[in-house]
Amino acid sequence: MCATELIAIFSISALFNIELTSYNDNIYILLADVLTSKFLYFITLLILSGIINKNQKTSKIPLSFYLFPTAALSSLVMFWYIMTTYQLSKNTMIVITCVSVFLFLSTILLFISYHYNAEKEQELLLLRQESEKLNTDLKYFDILVNQNNNLRAYAHDTKNHLSAIRNLNTNSEIEMHLLKMSESLAQYSKVCHSGNHTLDVVVDKYVTECRLNGLNFEFDIKNNNLSTIEPYDTVTILGNLLDNALETAKTSKQKTVTFETDYRNDFFVIIISNSCDTNPILNGKALPSTTKANKQLHGFGLKSVRNTLKKYNGDISFDYDNREKVFVVTVMVDAVNK
Predict the structure, then answer these.
(1) Is this prediction's pTM over 0.70?
(2) 251 lies in the same domain as 119
(3) Which among 290, 329, 326 has a CA at the least distance from the CA of 309?
(4) CA-based, 20 to 30 A from 74: which of 42, 156, 158, 278?
(5) Is-contact 219 194, C-beta < 8 A?
(6) What is the DSSP secondary-structure string of 165-199?
């Protein structure tokens, strides 16, 4: 406020070539100084508040960061002293006014730059967390594969033993129990057989997650097993998109998720759709805005997918069927040029 008042007084005095303290004797000059300073003050706060609250968060500014605005304000006060003490020419007053405005704008730009850099650092941190999550998922998938292989081997041997016991058994009640045990063991058989080890594990994982969450999961990958996409990138693309699909389907009425792959015109096509009761709002970057409460901690999954697709000359698009209440994500990956 002090800075805007001094700049207003400097500007009016320099433009009209009047004494710096003329507002003390002239009500019109005082009114002009007040209106100009308050207008500058309002505009400055409006700009700063719009930038700071753009993402509904504020950056904690360190105490040392205020040294520059303090020095700038001290310079303005020193200019005031010079202009009230010495008789200055109009050109000198204009120069001092321009320097004052420059110092004032520099302070504003400094805070804007700091806020912008703080946001970028936050995004970088979240992207690192996303990368660490993917690495953890890959390790989890490896562990899961080993466990599932051992479990399936055990289930296969156990089914053979149960079959032998059923052939020897003559009690109908025991026969019923053995049949139920055989049916229970059947669920431990491998669900997906695409020929792509990573794709099989990913599909098996989400089949299990959908079953646990009461969701209907359907998949069709017989036309394309995404074999040319690296395992890490497969997990990045499918993991993020299927996580989002499951999260949305949980809150819908139909509670369905479908996943299919295809091959069209030298492109691998991945289509993931899920039931969605409301039309997601698309932001300026054509990425659905996150519906979660803390927007700063979410939304980086789709950014990771888009960055990964650049590696394969790929693209991603979104569509919503208002009649069927289904949200569809389509991914195109260049199958020729990687």
Answers:
(1) no
(2) no
(3) 329
(4) 42
(5) no
(6) HHHH---HHHHHHHHHHHHHHHTTS-----S-HHH
